[in-house]
Structure of Tetratricopeptide repeat protein:
Amino acid sequence: MTMNRFTLPAIIALTTLVCFADAATVNAGNVDIGLSSREAYVGMPVTMRLTVADATNYETPAIPEIPNCDVRMVGSPSQSSQVTIINGRRSETRSVTFQYAITPRTPGTFNIPPLSIDVDGKQVKTQALRFVASKSVTGDLMFVEIAGGKEKVFVGQPLDLSLKIWLKPYYDSERDLTLSESDMWNMISEQTSWGDFADRLEELRENHQRPGGEEVLRKDAEGSLRSYYLYEIKATVYPRQSGKIDAKDVQIIVNYPTELGSSRSPLDGFFGDSPFGGRSPFSRMMNDDFFQSSFGNRLAVTASRPIVGEVNVDATQVLPVPIAGRPADYRGAVGTYRIATRATPTTVNAGDPITLDIGIAGSGPMELVQAPPLSELPALTQDFKVTDRSLAGFVQDDSKVFSTTIRPKEAGITQIPAIPFSFFDPETETFQTVTSEPITITVNQSETLALDAIVGNSEKPQHADHESSAIWGSTGPDFSNNNSPIILRSQRAHLPFAWWWTLIVVPPCAWLAIVVVRNHQRIRRWIPTFQSARKRCVSSIERAASLADIAEAITHYIGDMTRTPCTTPTASLGQLRIRGMYDLANRLDSFYQDMEKRPMLESTSSDRSSCESKACLLVEQLDDSFKAARKPHILRSGKPMVQPASPVLRRSWAFLIAVVFAASANVVFASETDPSEIELSISQQEIILKEAGENYTQASESATIDAADAKQKFESAAQKYQLLVDAGVQNSQLFLNLGNAYMQTGELGKAIVYYERGQQLAPYNQQLFANLEFAKHQRAAPPHMHAAGWFDGVVQQLQGANNTFVQTLGIANVIALMVISSLAFWGLLIANTIGLRFPIWRSSLVPLLLLLVSMGSYQLFTYNTVNSHMAVAVVDQMRLYVGDGEEFAQVATLDKAQGHFVNVLAKRGGWIKIHTAQNQVGWVPTTNIIPIRS
């Protein structure tokens, strides 16, 4: 009994689950297929629709080839969804429909085999389909002809073709009515394929026009003259293969009327049922508003049948371009052409890029014209580095412009040679070659490529500590790179050799401690002099041994506060009354009189404490009165006024606001200008670093042989180093490598940026310091430099002299001199302090001078003139605008701005407001500058 009690519900639950599972299986991934018609005509497509419903994943169906049929997909798949709510239950169905146009080319029966589609991981097969195609009897209702007008043309030669359509007017004998040429044109089916004439029809449609029909006489199939409407469409084509003119893509389909009847609505157009009639797009294209017609409101085509016109093409022969006599630089142009070139700039250094624009104009199809093979022209490749990639140009009217970059290989090149362009002239049936004019240029010796001649130690071992070796290395700039994988480790800004600060700070601290110990009694007497008058008075009262001492302490206090000599209590009372403190003077006088009654302090502790308390209370009241008297008396209005902040508080708030503003501006600027970090694995970083190092080394070796190739390799190395930086690697040596690469490519501004960033991480790196100073000296001085302030001017002059001193001596030697002179000077002072007698100033003068000089040199070396708002110009010419856009007026144009510092004031979108050294303020694009702080 118990078993049955639990078995029945289990069976019901299991049955329910199975039913739901079956239902889910049935409803998921349904595939439906069907044809728009089982009967078709040759040349007229039928539509096959394939619908996939309730599927999460599915593949695009692959339609097999159907013999004697053309199959193409119509548009993109359409998606639909349907939501149904029945008895409160909501169900949703989603489906996607693919449409294919199947056009039979011959009469017969056609089979579409079952299609296998992957739906939600399962193969679903559709049912097989079949349709029948018969040939539509056109008879003498329509004739189609394409006329070329020439006996022969060459491949690629323009050929004017004319598509002629003769369409017999439909005549309704019952109503004695003949349709007009516009009515018959509107019967052309939208399934018509126009081939090369489609562009012309599209042009007419955009102008709200259509081909005009003309009533002419033509012989029908039986040779009798009949009336036809002739529609003629002209187009220019460019044959792409030899033989006869191919017209397979032209197929004219007309829904020829067979019956007229009453219109269903007085608002219906005459051909409302026709795809090309009434309000169809093609009817609107032709400006045929048949609502104006008197019978158009009463009649419409009620029956039609499709007819397909067989296209007859004239005997124009397309000949291939001959091979004999074909120039080596010929690239298939047919017609007549001319060529012109332009180069910018015309004065460059060896290896620098020159933009070469090539313009070709002619009578042929400009979209098919190819650029001359520049990499195969010996006259050009002998002196210039030329890309071997095909150039993509843009067409404008009857011309096409190509743009490329060439690089002179060495200094002294005086011109870009003439560029030839070969074409085949179909009129003379010969090949012709035209050339551009040579372009005069000036190529100077590249300064950046000569940097290897001044490097310090290019044979440094890769495993050496790059920072220490740079500090103790050469005094000149060194443009060799260290490509050890260790530089892929990110660093933080730190100060190496911090241990030596101990040797500088400890000796003066030791001397100060000895001085304090040996003079502690004198110092103890000095300490009260630094207290306030009130505190000194209270301390004296607490130490008083008699009433006279208390009175004397109060008298001295009043004298200090009034800044008058008060030798007696009576004099102090007079000073209080002079200042209007009558009440306090009376209370103090009573206190004095009370004390005069007791010549000596009572022995009891309570009396002593009471007297001291009264005296201290009077002093507190006096102090409050003196403070109130010092405040200015200002007549206040009825409105409350906020008390002004104290100078210290104001300075504190100003400093705090400045810090917050600087921090926020720096964060915003960095977050908006820094590129998004690229994710690179360690192995990828090592590969990129290796490739960058190889490119840099190869470029250094070939700099004197092939300047153009060296420049390209330097640029490639810079791009790869930059990729590592963009990936988030922050390393001083990597910044040095990148700065060197930019220096070699002539991008002085970027080189300075990354040298500065490297110094933030390694401030004592001598190679960074020397290279940065060298780069700064390469900058061109911009005109009308704004004079610096007095302090900044002095600092700049001192830094200039100090940089030469440090570069010659080395920062490590400066630090060593500072440590030794500090130990010597303070050691002599300590010896003299503990009692050794010798001429202290004569002995310590030299160590003191050395200490001051070395410490000043070190401070100038580490003095950071770069703040968080500074950036470097990375363009030669910088235009400043009043606002953040080129539509605003220009403030100024700065020439030779590359590498110079500017202050960033604000940022908005892709524009930055800056303040230049010329004391000019304006907006520039963000691409013109790079911030120093990374």
Notes: The chain has 22 helices and 41 strands.
